[in-house]
Specification:
This protein is mainly beta. It contains six helices and 24 strands. A hairpin with a 5-residue loop joins strand 4 and strand 5. The radius of gyration is 21 Å and the shape is globular.
């Protein structure tokens, strides 16, 4: 692999993902999740459910890591919208004093299947931001992805077990909840009003052990398109220092308003000052749907989870013949399954367009709408088959509407 072909970025939380070679025309972002033990590979066929390095790109939604929570009833809005004051902005110290206790530390435990059918617990860490005083917290999807246990530690050292409310892989946003009340909640800003050069203050849990760390810089750029685990995102760029463990933490303006959720940074050894955050205007709609419905409405659902094979070692591991995109698993109740697509199928094309990467597959599917008919050509046992089915809307099964 030629490292001059692309720029590596690190996504700022604490979980480990398997990284494969990516095409030169994609800026790759790697997850900054620090696991206490390396995620082991378990060789076998694509259908092996124990392998934790899969990418669930085909659904455009991750599977919930715990049972969905019944729809809560609210007395007020999902979050508090603020307005920048016309007075002089606060100092960095004043902002830190005002909002530091809205940012929490998150630690996770994940059951990992290793070699010889052995299992072990891998731990990770990240950050989160309280957005409702009754315990609702926004973080990154990759911080809590596949976690069997989520623990939240407040700025005063108090710890709580957290439950998963909902996740959205496409925007890398997740909502979790702790059983607490009277918490200081962040006030949301308006990322559409941001300008390059204005103050940006990051607060998070770098290295998974330095909770409450405050760093400052500026908004370096707006609307940067970055690809994270085959999900193309439009992010804010900042030179405020962010590190592994900062993922899910807050990016605030000089008035103490939350303007972004930190999720990525540059990992290049010769690159500095390249941090990224999800704009708060993107976050608002996602958390509203996650809290009310457990998923983001209007998302296309193929019923398939996918994996990309891009090197000989991985191909040998999964005993497959081609580089490209494979069906890792498929929902037996989906239209794709009813049409005839099966686990292990190699995706050759979508609507006549050749597919070689998961990013290409995701782009093709996202260009379509719920109710559209999609035609997918696959190779199975050296035979080519073409299947057509109607795209469904993604929902969380069992979530009470």
């Amino acid at each position: 692999m030629d490292y001059n072909d692309y720029t590596d970025y690190v996504d700022c939380s604490e979980q480990k993902k398997n990284k494969r070679g990516k095409p030169s025309n994609v800026i790759t972002v790697v997850i900054c999740v620090l696991l206490s033990a390396a995620m082991g590979f378990l060789g076998g066929y694509v259908a092996n459910q124990s392998n934790k390095t899969i990418i669930l790109g085909g659904t455009d939604q991750p599977q919930a890591t715990s049972s969905p929570t019944p729809k809560p009833s609210f007395d007020g809005s999902i979050f508090t919208q603020g307005q920048a004051s016309g007075d002089d902005p606060l100092t960095i110290a004043q902002v830190a004093a005002q909002v530091s206790d809205t940012v929490v530390e998150i630690t996770t435990e994940t059951v990992v299947n290793g070699n010889r059918l052995q299992q072990y617990i891998a731990t990770g860490a990240g950050s989160g931001v309280i957005f409702r005083s009754d315990g609702y917290i926004v973080t990154n999807n990759h911080v809590i992805d596949s976690a069997s246990k989520i623990t939240v530690t407040m700025s005063d050292g108090t710890s709580y077990d957290a439950s998963l409310i909902g996740t959205d892989e496409q925007t890398d946003i997740a909502v979790i909840k702790i059983e607490a009340s009277g918490l200081n909640a962040a006030v949301f800003g308006d990322s559409s009003q941001l300008i390059v050069g204005q103050t940006a203050i990051a607060i998070g849990n770098p290295l998974g052990s330095l909770g409450g760390t405050v760093t400052n810089g500026i908004i370096s750029a707006l609307d940067r398109e970055i690809t994270i685990d085959d999900q193309t995102m439009t992010l804010l760029q900042t030179n405020a220092a962010v590190n592994p463990g900062n993922s899910g933490g807050g990016l605030f303006d000089a008035n103490g308003l939350l303007i972004g959720v930190v999720n990525a940074k540059s990992s290049g050894s010769d690159v500095e000052g390249l941090g990224f955050a999800i704009p708060i205007d993107t976050v608002k709609g996602v958390i509203t749907d996650l809290v009310q419905y457990g998923y983001v409405r209007g998302r296309v659902y193929t019923g398939m989870s996918m994996i990309e094979i891009s090197d000989s070692i991985t191909a040998l591991q999964y005993r497959v013949s081609y580089y490209g995109v494979y069906v890792y698993s498929i929902d037996g109740d989906s239209n794709a399954y009813a049409a005839g697509i099966r686990t292990g199928d190699y995706i050759k094309s979508v609507n006549g367009s050749q597919i070689s990467t998961l990013s290409e597959f995701n782009r093709m599917i996202r260009s379509l709408s719920i109710g559209d008919t999609v035609e997918i050509t696959v190779i199975r046992s050296k035979q080519t088959h073409t299947y057509s089915f109607t795209l469904q809307e993604y929902t969380v099964k069992g979530f009470e509407q």
